[in-house]
Design a protein that fits this description.
Radius of gyration: 33 Å
CATH class of the largest domain: Mainly Alpha
Number of strands: 6
Largest sheet: 3 strands, mixed
CATH architecture of the largest domain: Up-down Bundle
Structural class: mainly alpha
Oligomer: single chain
Number of domains: 3
Length: about 425
């Protein structure tokens, strides 16, 4: 059983591994051009919100080289190699930021899509991905048969996208995006390096320089400090991420129960999670709310465990009419509202009307005394907050139809209109 988990099985000669690591960490000539092209590809992918293009950029990126080199250098106490690795990593980072900054500066299209936004809020899950992805990567590097893990590691650890997102933040002046993306990039670099350091120590790569116990402990302390600086903020962001997800679920449930299931069409919704109090802004297709009704809705939030939140209902027509001239988010709202309005109108038409082609000629052929006939779907209200739709037919005739004739007409109309129930009345 011990052989199954033995990392020494299939291990490549240490000298060959080190030669490969050192050759992959250099950023001169072809590697520099590959890096610049990979950065451009990733930037285009982020710009057009193409996941496939972003993945392609990750696969051709040489950024893993100096990070793995730094991990090997730490594990072997090779401080000359460490300095070279960090220098190359710093150079590649600066080049990456510069190229992505120039691209997004010149790009006429600067909207932040999901591929960009998802790289601006790192959390503890990103730490775990970087660490275990780094473990897989360095284990693969130390094997005789490299196998297939390397492409997967390049995708999982995702070095290129956050670096390009940081360039986007600089180009657009969005320093929140810049800081969040750069923090994610740093997390990936640090924990890939630490994972590499751990495997190098486990496989007992020989130390290049003699380091006494005191200096060795000092290095471990510094590693622990760096880990803490990365992990503690990540745990906080993870908590906020989970809390926001739970909050969004509660809000969705509230909106569904209180509005959508009661036939109210929401054409605008905006949730402000970071404000104090939190805010839920809504606008409806046709329904208007009094101040008392809005107060009641705010009170109902407690029934759904939604605390410290205020409901704001936008009822001014100018808000939607002038949305296109306001913010970017308002433009999205307007587009959404227009699509929703069309959908709602079609739903209302289908809800309250019948397709009545050839109804009158056919009805008159059965009952020649009928001079007019009209059909409708009537909405029946009751004391509860629910409604009922009832099909109704009105007709005019030269004589009063007998109960048997009315029943025949009713049954014929039910089949024709494909309804289960139908009220029928003769107009005088």
């Amino acid at each position: 059983m011990s052989n199954i988990f033995n990392l020494h099985n299939g291990e490549e000669d240490k000298e060959k591994v080190l030669a490969t690591v050192k050759s992959n960490m250099s950023f001169s000539g072809p590697n520099l051009w590959i890096l610049a092209c990979a950065i451009l590809v990733a930037s285009v992918g982020l710009n057009v919100n193409s996941t496939a293009v972003v993945i392609g950029a990750m696969l051709i990126s040489p950024l893993m080289g100096p990070i793995v080199g730094a991990g090997f250098a730490l594990g072997m106490f090779d401080f000359s190699l460490l300095r070279k690795s960090l220098k190359n990593l710093l150079l590649s980072t600066i080049i990456g930021l510069a190229v992505s900054f120039l691209y997004f500066l010149l790009s006429p299209y600067k909207e932040a899509h999901s591929e960009i936004i998802s790289r601006t809020s790192p959390n503890i899950y990103d730490v775990l991905i970087a660490f275990f992805g780094g473990l897989v990567g360095v284990i693969a590097v130390t094997r005789v048969e490299k196998g297939n893990p390397i492409p997967g590691v390049a995708i999982a650890t995702a070095l290129m996208p956050p670096l390009c997102t940081a360039g986007y933040g600089l180009a657009t002046g969005n320093f929140a995006y810049f800081g969040g993306a750069l923090f994610l990039y740093t997390i990936n670099c640090v924990f890939i390096c630490i994972a590499t350091y751990g495997i190098v120590k486990f496989l007992k790569y020989p130390a290049v320089e003699f380091v006494d116990k005191k200096k060795s402990e000092k290095i471990k302390v510094w590693i622990s400090v760096i880990v803490a600086l990365m992990v503690i903020p990540s745990i906080f962001f993870a908590y906020r991420f989970v809390d926001q997800q739970n909050y969004d679920v509660k809000v969705k449930n509230f909106l569904s129960k209180e509005f959508e299931e009661k036939g109210n069409t929401i054409i605008y919704k905006k949730t402000s999670y970071s404000s104090d109090p939190k805010k839920i802004e809504l606008a409806f297709l046709s329904r208007k709310f009094s101040a008392e009704q809005i107060k009641e809705l705010n009170a109902k939030l407690k029934n759904y465990n939604i605390d410290n939140t205020q409901i704001i209902i936008r009822q001014d027509s100018a808000f939607l009419a002038n949305a296109a001239n306001k913010t970017e988010s308002a433009n999205e709202i307007t587009s959404q509202a227009n699509n929703t309005i069309v959908t709602e109108l079609n739903r209302q038409i289908n809800k309250y009307s019948f397709k009545t082609d050839n109804i009158f000629p056919e009805a008159q052929s059965i009952f020649p005394e009928i001079s007019t006939i009209s059909l409708a779907k009537q909405e029946i209200f009751n004391r509860t907050d629910s409604t009922q739709i009832l099909p109704v037919a009105f007709y005019e005739a030269s004589k009063t139809l007998s109960p048997t004739e009315q029943n025949t007409l009713r049954n014929w109309l039910k089949v024709k209109l494909k309804v289960d129930t139908l009220e029928i009345y003769q107009r005088k």
